[in-house]
Amino acid sequence: MKPDETPSRSLVIERKLSHPASKVWRALTQGALMEEWLMKNDFQPVVGHRFTLRSEPNPHWNGIIECQVLAVEPNQRLSYSWGSLGLESTVTFTLTPMEGGVLLRMEQSGFPTGAGRDQYYQGAKYGWTRFLDALQGVVAKLD
Amino acid sequence: MNRLASPDDVLKALADPTRRALFERLSREGELTVHRLTERSGVSQPAVSKHLGQLRDAGLVRDRRAGRETHYSAQPQALAPLIDWMKSYATFWNDRLDQLENLLDRMDQ
Question: Is the ipTM of this complex over 0.90?
């Protein structure tokens, strides 16, 4: 993804946690603990591992998120792809030690096109990012 | 809009890059015929018609017959469920991170 496409399509949430990084890391990467705060899962902290997150289905959504582990740097950084309803994004957790605990940064970025599914139209690549950016003007006029 | 599309309908319709491109072009250029949309698309007219049908079923475009031609126009308000869905991720993560903090308080070191 080009840097100039990132900001408008990413969600960043930071939390200061008064817990050691190693403890937060366990909550982020142990399946049973992940289930307690996130969703049911078959996560393994192994780069390339494919897993699903499952929540209760509703009439508009099967409740399943398809993921693949992209980065595992113990006590520092965890990243996985997040695919649902044809939209693919990347979720990255970063831990930075600070006085009395750790700063947790969660970033969901991109909503880029899924790899391998791209086609070309009029010579241009129509990724989600470009598409949604192009439509921002249209959407702004909706209200 | 004559029916309410769900985020699922809208996302499925827009999951295909060719359909996204068709929808974007209609949003930008206004009403166009299938014939015009097929030009320069690199896709056959039957394929374009099929894509337009899927966009119509999701409420994203409207069709109008005039003589032998079918004219299509974008219905951008049909994007509202998608926009709402993306916005809802902020709420989703804040809720989940609240639960994470709650869990951390209950965990042993």
Answer: no
